[in-house]
């Protein structure tokens, strides 16, 4: 029985000296993050394909059971819209190869303009994509949510997961901080979806900068994730807030709440102790 939890990134300036060493190399920060959380969203891979040597340093810091959910580069999903994708996708998969099984899922985040009329394009992509990978698809066109059956059938045929981005808690009341006001203009207003297709569901949840509001909003996910675990599924849940200042701690708090409902779930390991700083902490 396994539940994995993680954040949208593994390093943030406000985490230094609290969750991560300060000062520290990028590799040391990743190693410390991986002692707090057991998964991470690979959002940076959306913007650029990392060098293979960089990924080798990631792999050296991550335990074998860690889950890296890697976002397919935007050149494939947004610029080429899943057409003529072989060269950039091949370069991306070659770069990720050092992660091995820690590449838990390849995450296809589609633009809001990619709607049900484009389903055949998605189907051709999944048929032609290399074997041996798990695929997750995040859609943002509202018509997929009002009539989900066709997309669900297609994903089921490829054993691919529908990755929901739950922003309902965030948009339930007006923003109250600068980070929330910024996110209010950028984050998509997505309908709630709690249905899993595969044995490996992935959830992206956006809360508020107020931790208690975030916790109140995820109670439905505690119930859903507990049910998935009892069904034999191995979910991964990513906790976001607009400023992400407390995200690693919130991930563990979510895990503990699920474990309170499902006592057979093993506790998370204790985070690595932080070394004493050499001097006063700064954010820079």
TrEMBL record:
Q: Mind telling me which InterPro entries this protein's record contains?
A: DUF72, UPF0759_sf
Entry superkingdom: Bacteria
Name of the featured protein: DUF72 domain-containing protein
Instruction: Please report the organism this UniProt entry assigns to the protein.
Output: Actinoplanes missouriensis (strain ATCC 14538 / DSM 43046 / CBS 188.64 / JCM 3121 / NBRC 102363 / NCIMB 12654 / NRRL B-3342 / UNCC 431)
